[in-house]
């Protein structure tokens, strides 16, 4: 049924729907009785026209209600499978782009929420229509973000998660998932290289929040009184991170009342790596000005350039001055699973805390992000309030499994099941080969860009999956590399990207950095991508670039 028909639903059907809702919600009548009351209405149960959600489980528990429910779910699954099939079909567009005003027009009344219920045929059509305008982030030519791809096991794991629909705050209501969280976090800590059986951690809603946990724990270690007394009892705390670090570090300084001016940006070298000597210098300056340095965050795979800070050298400086050492490898953490590439994170085992997003490099569906700590107990001490309606201290089981009081949330989504299921399906070696393959593709892309004319690298030797480059159109190639050329170059990537989005064939990000004009930030993290897709992207940039 189309939207038009949906809105023109026969008056009698509307009345019937409203009737079903009202009587059923009072629990007065069975479906049969309703049918009698409504007279000769003969719906076709193989279709969902004129069928309302009140006629599914849990309202209608009859055989018929059960059958309808399973038919309805299978219809939804069909819609999803169709989307997945299209996402993997290179002849399908990555997106069907509309400007906000025209999308509003296209969907128009379809988005309205009204007093009367819609039938399930409409609901199915709503699902289809929604997916039609979604960006196919699992498409092999979607390169726009650090989290791309659609892993079948992770996705079905998320379906199970939705069906189990529980909250992670206590063992009481999430017994299996709590144990899985312990297993997975322990495994991640072992991979980091911390002593077996030690340490702590929790899944957080994204790397930005995982980083917040790290700063919070670090502040608790230096100044635990803040928990009760607030920042007025704190000295002027100073934290450090590189100028290329993720913006969440600085924002966390704002959130925690430390202040963004007390989050010092450390200089980076030509590759974008934090310069340890500048860190040392900045620590001295902070101390001399009466501040108390307490935290440094090194980045393992910067968001833009994919650079790895020298963790060992930064640890040396941090520990000399008694700072908490955090490694934000939200993006690069997965590299630890590769024997060949874990060296990028050499020294990580010396850190006090680590942010690691399985929803990026490892390809877990959104969202899945861990904060891992070397010391056990600090999260609990820092965050727990022992709300006595949830975390009763006299429960009949081992309450150390009530992990929720370590969190800064109350309810917590189950982010672990899909990751656990992926790990079962891939094993360590599956993740390793996935990551090694992505690295091969990155090397392939770099080779192609070197061979072709008009491409210039932002950093000469990218060490990871981010390959940042400029495309210089033919008519600009004779120009000297000066600020005049930069002004023109700055406009190239946004224009090509806009044309790309209108055509819908592929998607790649662009951005400026410091004084550098806009460049393409190509990220390879999509397991669906093959070398031909990389060729396609470069060809597309060349083709569109010449249209400028
Ligand atoms: C992506 C990223 C984050 C933020 O993670 P979210 O899950 O998007 O909150 C933090 N740090 C780095 C280095 C990142 O790349």
From TrEMBL:
Residue numbers carrying N6-(pyridoxal phosphate)lysine: 360
One GO CC annotation: cytoplasm
GO-annotated molecular function: glutamate decarboxylase activity; pyridoxal phosphate binding
Names of required cofactors: pyridoxal 5'-phosphate
InterPro entries: PyrdxlP-dep_de-COase, PyrdxlP-dep_Trfase, PyrdxlP-dep_Trfase_major, Pyridoxal-P_BS
One Gene Ontology term from the biological process aspect of the record: gamma-aminobutyric acid biosynthetic process
CDD domains xrefs: DOPA_deC_like
Keyword Flavoprotein: no
Assigned keywords, A-Z: Decarboxylase, Lyase, Pyridoxal phosphate
Subunit architecture: Homodimer.
Family under the similarity heading: Belongs to the group II decarboxylase family.
Protein name: DgyrCDS12146
Organism: Dimorphilus gyrociliatus
